[in-house]
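Check this.
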Amino acid sequence: MRKSRFTEEQIVRIIQEYAAGAKVSELCRKHGMSDATFYKWKARYGGLQVSDVRRLRDLEEENNKLKKLLAEQMLDNAGLKGLLAKNF
């Protein structure tokens, strides 16, 4: 997946500019993005504050770490079950 030029904090601030009354076309021209990108961001980040986005990112990172740990444990468990099945 392509890395965005904008951080999540910047995206939320752009959406907040829109909520304050700026027009979409002016925002898109000012920040160098398309209307479709803005509306996609609005659907995903609309209603969030900068602190919420940071917390969301931290939770996603923690979730990925936990998923990796679970997958490793399941592989170890399957390996041990395989060894036990061969021995008996």
